[in-house]
Amino acid sequence: ASTDTDYGRPGGVAQGGGVFLYAIPAGQASATFQITPVDDALVEGDETVTVTIEANAGYARGSPASVTLVVVDDDFRPTVAVSSADPTGAEAGSDPATFTLTRSGGGGSDAAQLNVFVQLGGTASTDTDYGRPGGVAQGGGVFLYAIPAGQANATFSIVPVDDALVEGTETVVVTLAANAAYVVGAPASVQLNILD
Q1: What integer pLDDT is reported at residue 42 of this predicted model?
Q2: Separation between Cα atoms, residue 141 and residue 160, nearest integer Å
Q3: How far is residue 23 from each of residues 8, 27, 29, 77, 166, measured CA to CA in Å?
C-alpha cells in the first residue's frame, strides 16, 4: 500500500524516503498510532503496510522491530459481459452494428471508469471493412473500450466501410479478453454481421 494514497498516517511526521517520526509522550511507556485506509473505488485487493523501527542513537531496537498491517479492500472485481441489440450492419449508408459491454457487481467499483479489453475477429478486417469508434488499438487485434464512471454499460458501434468490392456478408466477432480488473462473464462473445 502507498502512504497518503492508500492510507493516511495521523501523528506521523514525514522525514523523507518513507521514514516517519512518531513520538512516545513523556511519562508514557507506549503510544498507539493508526493507519487509516482511504476508501476509494479501485479494485486493488488487500494491501499491506509494513511498519519497521528505524535505527537511531536515541534508543535500542527491540524485538519484534517490525509488524505488517493489512488494508482490506472493499471493492471487488466486477463481472463483464458483451451483448448486441443490433447485431447487423450494412455497407449501404454505413449502417452500424452495435455491441454493449455491461458490468455487474464490483462492490461500488462502478464509481470508476472500467477499461475492458476486446478481441475483434471474424471474416471482416478492422479499419478496412469497418471502423471501430471508441476502440483504442492494443495490438494483436485487441482493442480497449471504456465503460464510463458511474455507468453499468456502454454501447459501441462497428461502422461498415461502403466499398465497391463484392464480398458477401462478413462477420465481426467481439470477444472479451481476460484482464485482472474484471471477471469475464457470459456471454463472453457476440457475432455481428456486415451486409455487403
Answers
A1: 75
A2: 17
A3: 17, 12, 11, 39, 80
What single letter denotes the amino acid at residue 8?
G
Query: How is 1-58 classified by DSSP, letter by letter?
Result: --BTTTEE-TTPEEEETTEEE--PPTT-S------EE---S-----EEEEEEPPPBTT
Grid cell 492510507 is found at 7
What is the C-alpha separation between 106 and 27, in angstroms, rounded? 48
Splitting the chain (196 residues) into consecutive groups of 10 residues, what average pLDDT does each group show? 83 89 94 89 82 94 94 83 95 92 79 91 90 88 93 93 88 94 94 92
Task: Judge whether 160 and 130 are in contact, CB under 8 Å.
Answer: yes
Asked if 141 and 70 touch (Cβ cutoff 8 Å), the reply is no
Grid coordinates belonging to 116: 475492458
Q: Give one DSSP letter per residue of 100-149, joined into a string.
A: EEEEE-STTGGGS-EEEEEEEESSS-BTTTEE-TTPEEEETTEEEEEEPT
In 55-105 the beta strands, taken as DSSP E runs, fall at 66-71, 79-86, 88-90, 97-104
**Residue 80 has what pLDDT?**
95
